[in-house]
């Protein structure tokens, strides 16, 4: 089945009353009926809802639908994209370990992975995800994860996914790819040898800027990479916090299972069932929205490229873009999402443009049906130190656009007026 159809139907067959919409199970807990069933659920002899911090029937349909769209084996939904990144990393690394992180990533991921997790004793080394030439030499015995974005926010760079996977597999290190901007419709990192995908559902998946959420998806066969791998003792040794359970002995996808049973259980960034329900509505139109976002963004990118006040446009769908070849090879029908950025002279010129647009809202979000304009250096990436900013290509004159679903003609006119002639 195509992804467009899966997004509408997968994992729900109108059981019960036959409701066309997936039911919203707005509940904290579940009646086990018998003491034995309760004991079986806790001992993992039976799988089923226990408590909404751990699982919920509405959220489970959302998780299974995303796993299907990503061509993965299992998914875990959490309360934000940030918590999905933290859980994916914390599931692999602990104090004394290191992770290797791409230079060109979302500002929140940079501060989380290079500063906040350092306070837990996990250090980050930076690598260049464009070519991954420096990746192999950065890996040591304590390296537990390699993190990068398929289509990066806000540089709109396309990673060399296959090369990253190849090097990581040679060394037995788990790879984590943030696929938020590309969405599972345009690209499936798990089919290119990546082990784990994370998402912020707050962007294209909700599609209308309605809720915050995140996901972790694991590829099928990831168990084999984790089992008996000396890098990952926590999957192979008894977990004292779960009466000596050994994850490697279980007949389930153990990456997301352990993230659920230990991290979600203890740290508790659970997704609200209502938000899962909203994301399910978003998924229904994801394929058609991303097509429209991509078509409009390409038109806007071409307009900006021809404008004398614009120094540079970053959009991998443009033939002049350094990532054009990779984007056409990787992304479905060469579509590149609605995210693009462009550079003007300096901060003052950028500010003037932000203040002059009428349809674009000055907002720090992407993937909304309404168009958005952002100045990353003073907002989303303000907390990132200057040196790291420039290393990741974020200059003071860089403006990011998230192209919405308004008429492209109106959007181009709005930008034309804001840029002046
Ligand atoms: C927004 C974003 C995140 C963080 O997600 P939240 O849902 O806002 O916590 C992570 N990665 C990327 C690429 C993003 O765009």
The assigned CATH architecture of the largest domain is 3-Layer(aba) Sandwich
Order of helices and strands: HHHEHEHEHEHEHEEHHHEHEHEEHEH
Low-confidence stretches: none
Span between termini: 49 Å
Hey, roughly how much beta strand do the residues contain? Answer: 5-15%
Structure commentary:
The chain is of the alpha/beta class and 421 residues long. The chain has 2 domains: 3-274, Aspartate Aminotransferase, domain 2 (3-Layer(aba) Sandwich); 287-419, Aspartate Aminotransferase, domain 1, CATH 3.90.1150. Helices cover 37% and strands 13% of the residues. The chain has helices at residues 3-9, 35-42, 57-69, 81-90, 107-116, 135-138, 161-171, 183-186, 222-226, 254-267, 273-305, 324-330, 347-356, 386-391, 408-419; strands spanning 74-78, 98-102, 123-127, 143-149, 174-178, 196-200, 214-218, 312-314, 339-343, 361-362, 372-374, 398-402. The strands form 2 sheets. Strands 1-7-6-5-4-2-3 form a 7-stranded mixed sheet, with helices on both faces. A 5-stranded mixed sheet has the order 8-9-12-11-10. Helix 1 (3-9) runs antiparallel to helix 3 (57-69), helix 1 runs antiparallel to helix 11 (273-305) and helix 13 (347-356) crosses helix 15. The protein is globular, with a radius of gyration of 22 Å. The mean pLDDT is 96. Pyridoxal-5'-phosphate (PLP) binds at residues 80-82, 106, 108-109, 149, 153, 178, 180-181, 200, 202-203, 212, 214, 366. Residues 80-82, 106, 108-109, 149, 153, 178, 180-181, 200, 202-203, 212, 214, 366 line the site of pyridoxal-5'-phosphate.
